[in-house]
Amino acid sequence: xxxxxxxxxxxxxxxxxxxxxxxxxxxxxxxxxxxxxxxxxxxxxxxxxxxxxxxxxxxxxxxxxxxxxxxxxxxxxxxxxxxxxxxxxxxxxxxxxxxxxxxxxxxxxxxxxxxxxxx
Length: 119
Known about the structure:
Layout: H1 12-63, E1 67-69, H2 70-73, E2 95-97, E3 104-108, E4 114-118
Antiparallel strand pairs: 1-2, 3-4
């Protein structure tokens, strides 16, 4: 009588190798994801600052003033419908100055870094 043994399943070594490979892939993917996320937030903030600068420039040209408050720029019949929502915990200022046709806006992100937009 011949008995043949059939082994089904994975060994502990094979499972450990798969876990190590998954860990290595995660270790490479997470920093790349965080960098893409940070870049996206910075570009969103820059775009928001560009929209605010454009609205304030239109206000400055029309009114001939050198400063604009948020209430002057935002409203249903104003230059902007609403202030952009925060993308990274930033807070936008309520006073937008211009110096000789040059608008410079900056905002502090939630992590303490700054995004600067110069026009």
